[in-house]
Amino acid sequence: MGLEISRIPAKLNIETSPSRLDIRTRKAKLEFRAERAKIDVHTELPRVVIDQYECFKSMGLMGPVDLTRQEGQYAMQQALTYASKVSADGDSMAAIENPADPMPDIVERDAYPEHEFVLDCIPKARPVITVTGGVRINVEGDMAGAANGAKAEYTPPDISIRYTPSKVRISMAQYPSISMRYVPSKFDKFV
Question: Of 81, 34, 58, which Cα lies nearest the Cα of 128?
Fold first, then answer.
């Protein structure tokens, strides 16, 4: 007796498509527009003015008006001092109740006057120093705000991403099968 077995193997059909990544970009753009400023600069060289009149005045070297005023005040003070001295001398001579004669004391006082000497430094006043001149700056035109007339336009960047995933398709091209069949043999051993 013969047994015949035949087999058909399975066959798979595999189709693949790779993944794909497309990136498109646009760069950022910044554009500036500015108006030029017009500036007028006027420069005057510095000048130092020193007024020493007060220094000279404190040393006695002064103008006629101030000299007349000072000498008038000094004369008034001396007149008042002399008037008070003469008045005091008259009062002492008129006091007959005093037994001592005041005349020798008055003569001695006037014959040998006492002078006071003082050491001092001059000048006592400081000079007045004035500085003139400098730089004057004028801005011409209308500068609008803190931007000073500058205008900017900004275009942001753009990114476009497209992703296609990979695909795998599996299908059966041939299904497996096993077939068995009986084949009678050509000789018979029982005969």
Answer: 58
User: Using CA atoms, how far apart are residues 71 and 103, in angstroms rounded to an integer?
Assistant: 32
Q: Where are the domains of the chain?
A: 1-28+158-191, 61-114
- What are the pLDDT digits (tens) for 29-57? 988 887 776 778 889 888 999 999 988 88
More confident residue, 183 or 22: 22
Tell whether omega for the bond before 123 is within 30 degrees of 0, i.e. cis.
yes
3 state DSSP class of 3: strand
The pTM of the full predicted model, rounded to 2 decimals, is 0.41
Cα–Cα dist 44/34, whole Å:
31
**167 φψ region: left (φ > 0), alpha (ψ -120 to 50), beta (else):** beta
Which has more confidence, 190 or 91? 91
Q: What does the alpha-carbon distance between residue 56 and residue 43 come to, in Å, rounded to a whole number?
A: 34
Entry field: residues in the chain: 191
> Which residue bears the tokens 């693949």?
16
| Tokens coding 185 | 């043999």
